[in-house]
Design brief:
- Helices cover 35% and strands 18% of the residues.
- The chain is globular and about 55 Å long.
- It has one domain: Metallo-beta-lactamase, Chain A (4-Layer Sandwich), CATH 3.60.15.
- The protein is of the alpha/beta class.
Length: 305
């Protein structure tokens, strides 16, 4: 689970930097690593015997073209399908760079429609902020990604679904399931069944555009259960690196414990802090963990309203 403060909106593993932009995960999965400076997520290419699929479009045409160039070098055809994990700008704004059939959840399609009505070239992105799809960090990331010229052409999905959709790639099955969550109400999990690989997107991240960041403990724990209900061996968050099942469980362990404490003692903040410090064997929480506690306690406040 990602936890590097200013690099991403939810916990990013500290001190882990990736050496290569591209990686072959298996004989049928290739991906482009996340880049934290401008908040670029992982882009993944899945190749079946008959068709291929891309997970997320990317932040910009520059981002998309880098992956396209790599796929060309490998002799791989451009993807037949493109599936969005959710609607946020870093996952959708390069959509016009791909000539694929776009598949998305109903709410992702609705969000894209709203964003298409905005002035996306406005440096202040006030329209995006107004409709709840951006914040001050977004302005900084977009500035680094686009420079002074920002040309964005969003594309509506060709096919939408409400709960779940299965895509046959020929020898590979891609299952896309809507799970929602605090980070984005349209978040989906993407499971490559035969590869036992689960793409989580940002589903386990906090809410970032609706005032102070927050997690709702119950919702977070419910999502964790849904993630580990899959018979997956590899787990991939959009802004982290692939982890095996044990690594991912270890990565989430302290966050799960914190969520459980908040669910149990939410009204008694000092009790949460005391028990969590005891668990971490810290007299005082680091800034990193104090912010994590603050996010969950903010979620409790919202539950009370």
């Amino acid at each position: 689970m990602n936890v590097q403060e200013n690099l991403k909106n939810h916990p990013i593993r500290e001190g882990k930097y990736l050496m290569s932009k591209f990686e072959k995960l298996s004989e049928r999965i290739w991906f482009m690593h996340a880049e934290h400076e401008s908040d670029r997520p992982i882009l993944a290419y899945i190749k079946g015997e008959k068709r291929s699929l891309l997970i997320d479009a990317g932040t910009s045409s520059t981002h998309a073209k880098m992956f396209q160039s790599h796929l060309n070098q490998l002799g791989l055809e451009m993807p037949d399908y493109l599936v969005f994990t959710h609607c946020h700008w870093d996952h959708t704004f390069a959509s016009s760079s791909w000539k694929s059939m776009f598949i998305a959840h109903d709410k992702t399609s609705q969000a894209i429609s709203k964003m298409m009505e905005c002035n996306l070239a406005d440096p202040s992105i006030k329209d995006l902020i107004r409709i709840g799809f951006a914040n001050e960090d977004t302005i900084e990331h977009m500035s680094k990604e686009y420079g002074e010229k920002r040309v964005i052409q969003l594309v509506q999905p060709n096919l939408t679904f409400s709960e779940k959709i299965s895509i046959d790639l020929g020898g590979l099955t891609c299952e896309v399931t809507h799970v929602g969550g605090d980070h984005a109400e349209d978040s989906c999990l993407i499971y490559i069944k035969e590869e036992k690989t689960l793409f989580i997107g940002d589903a386990l991240g906090p809410a970032i555009y609706d005032g102070p960041r927050y997690y709702r403990a119950e919702g977070f724990l419910d999502l964790v259960d849904k993630v580990f209900a899959y018979d997956a061996e590899t787990f991939i968050e959009s802004h982290d690196r692939p982890l095996n099942k044990q690594e991912y469980k270890d990565d989430l362990a302290d966050w799960i414990l914190l969520a459980q404490l908040v669910r149990t003692y939410g009204e008694h903040q000092q009790k949460v802090l005391k028990e969590f410090r005891r668990h971490l064997k810290m007299e005082e929480l680091t800034t990193y963990w104090q912010k994590a506690v603050d996010w969950f306690l903010e979620g409790e406040k919202r539950n009370e309203k």
